[in-house]
Write a structure and sequence with these properties.
InterPro entries: Bact_polysacc_biosynth/exp
GO molecular function, one term: protein tyrosine kinase activity
Number of strands: 5
Organism: Muricoccus pecuniae
CATH topology of one domain: Helix Hairpins
Radius of gyration: 51 Å
Protein name: Capsular polysaccharide transport system permease protein
CATH architecture of one domain: Orthogonal Bundle
Order of helices and strands: HHEHEHHHHEEHHHHEH
Keywords: Membrane, Transmembrane, Transmembrane helix
Helix content: 55-70%
Strand content: 5-15%
Largest sheet: 5 strands, antiparallel
Length: 392
C-alpha cells in the first residue's frame, strides 16, 4: 500500500488527493455555546435549587398563636377594635410588656426554659427531616440550639393590634403544636413574674414605710414612758394646771384674810386673839403661795422645763401616730393599685395541628434565586461587554 506524503501547512496538496470540508456545528451546539454563560450561572443553580425544594426538602408544618398582654394601666397609644373592646371592659394592652415578652421568646432563657419540658433536639432531628433543614448536632450547645431555634420560631409584635404573633415550624404537625403550647406557657410564666415583681416592688416600698412609722411610734411611746417614770408624773400639764389653780385659790384667800385683818384692826386692839389668828393665816397663806411658786418656777425640776419636755414628747408621739396612719393608708392604696395593675396574657388564637406543610415555600424560593441570579448575570454581562469594547 502506497502512503501519500504528509501535507504541510501552506503547501498544495498532491494531485489526486481530496480534502474533507469542516463540519458545521448544529443549531443546538451553537445555541449552547452562545448561552453557556447563562446556563452555568443562572439555569444550573436554579435547577439545583428546584431539585432540592421539589425533590429533597421535607415539609415543615407551622403552628401559630396570637396573644395579648393586658393590664389596667400604661395602655398603648394605638389599639385595634379588639384592643378598644378590651379597654372598654377595664383592660388595656400594655405595649412595653408585650414587646418584652416578644424579646424573651427570642432569647436563650426561653430556650433553656422550653428545653426543660420539650425535647427540642429530638423534634428538630426527626427521621423525615432533610439534612440541610434539620438540626445537625445531636448534642448542641445552648448557643447552637438558640441559633437554630431562631430559624424555626418567630415572634412579631403587631403595633396596630397590640398583639404578639407566634409561629413555630417543625417536621411534624403535632410537634409544632406542642412547641407552641410550651412557648405560650413560658410566656405566661414571664408575664406572671413581671406582675409579681411589680407587685413586690410597689408593696415593698409601702411596707418599708409602715415599718419605719411603727418603729417611730414605739420609740415615742417608750420615750414618754421613761419620762413619766423619771418625773413621777403621769400628766405634768394637768398637775401644773392644778398647782396654778391652788396658787390662785390661796391668793384669793390671802386677799380676803388681809382685808379682814384691816377691817378688824380698825376696832380691835393689836393683842386681840382674832388679830393674831388672822396674821397667822396670812403668814401661812403667803408661805404656801411661795412654796407653790417655787415648785412651778424654781429648782432642777422646774415646771416650765418639765412641761416643755413633756409637750415635746407628746408632739413626737402625735407625729409618729399620724405618720403610721398615713403609711398604713398608703399601703392599702398600693394594694388596690397593684390589684388593678395586674398583668394578664390573653390568648386570642389557640395553636392548632396543621393539616398540610406550608414550608418550605418552593415556588417563592426558586423564583427568588432565579431573579437574583438573572440580575447578577445581566450586570456581569454588561461589565464584560464594556471590557471587550474597550479592548477592541
Amino acid at each position: 500500500m502506497k502512503v501519500l506524503p504528509s501535507i504541510k501547512a501552506f503547501e498544495a496538496a498532491p494531485a489526486g488527493a481530496s480534502i474533507a470540508a469542516p463540519r458545521r456545528p448544529s443549531r443546538l451546539a451553537r445555541g449552547l455555546r452562545k448561552w453557556r454563560g447563562f446556563l452555568l450561572a443562572v439555569a444550573l443553580p436554579t435547577a439545583l435549587v428546584a431539585t432540592y425544594y421539589y425533590g429533597i426538602a421535607a415539609g415543615q408544618y407551622a403552628s401559630e398563636a396570637r396573644f395579648l398582654v393586658r393590664g389596667s394601666s400604661s395602655a398603648s397609644s394605638s389599639m385595634s377594635l379588639l384592643g378598644s373592646a378590651l379597654g372598654s371592659a377595664g383592660f388595656k394592652p400594655v405595649q412595653e410588656e408585650a414587646m418584652a415578652v416578644r424579646d424573651f421568646l427570642h432569647s436563650q432563657d426561653a430556650v433553656r426554659e422550653l428545653r426543660q419540658s420539650v425535647d427540642l433536639v429530638s423534634i428538630w432531628r426527626r427521621p423525615e427531616a432533610d439534612l440541610p433543614a434539620m438540626l445537625w448536632m445531636s448534642e448542641p450547645t445552648i448557643e447552637q440550639l438558640t441559633r437554630y431555634y431562631r430559624r424555626m420560631v418567630t415572634a412579631e409584635y403587631d403595633s396596630e393590634a397590640s398583639t404578639v404573633n407566634l409561629q413555630v415550624r417543625s417536621f411534624r404537625p403535632e410537634d409544632s403544636k406542642a412547641l407552641t403550647e410550651g412557648l405560650l406557657r413560658i410566656a405566661e410564666n414571664l408575664v406572671n413574674r413581671l406582675s409579681e415583681r411589680q407587685r413586690n416592688d410597689t408593696l415593698g416600698v409601702a411596707r418599708h414605710e409602715v415599718e419605719i412609722a411603727e418603729r417611730r411610734v414605739v420609740a415615742s411611746h417608750e420615750a414618754l414612758k421613761t419620762f413619766r417614770q423619771g418625773e413621777q408624773a403621769i400628766d405634768p400639764s394637768r398637775e401644773i394646771a392644778a398647782n396654778v389653780g391652788n396658787v390662785s385659790t390661796m391668793e384669793g384667800a390671802l386677799t380676803q384674810a388681809r382685808a379682814e385683818l384691816r377691817e378688824k384692826s380698825g376696832y380691835m386692839r393689836p393683842d386681840n386673839p382674832q388679830i393674831g389668828v388672822l396674821r397667822n393665816r396670812i403668814a401661812a397663806l403667803e408661805a404656801g403661795i411661795a412654796n407653790e411658786r417655787q415648785r412651778l418656777t424654781g429648782g432642777n425640776q422646774a415646771a416650765p422645763q418639765q412641761l416643755a419636755g413633756y409637750e415635746r414628747l407628746m408632739l413626737e408621739r402625735e407625729f409618729a401616730d399620724k405618720q403610721l396612719a398615713s403609711a398604713v393608708a398608703s399601703l392599702e392604696s398600693a394594694r388596690v393599685d397593684v390589684a388593678r395593675q395586674q398583668l394578664y396574657l390573653a390568648r386570642i388564637t389557640q395553636p392548632q395541628i396543621a393539616e398540610s406543610a406550608q414550608y418550605p415555600k418552593a415556588a417563592f424560593a426558586v423564583g427568588s434565586v432565579f431573579a437574583v441570579l438573572c440580575v447578577f448575570y445581566g450586570i456581569a454581562s454588561l461589565i464584560f461587554a464594556g471590557f471587550r469594547e474597550h479592548a477592541a
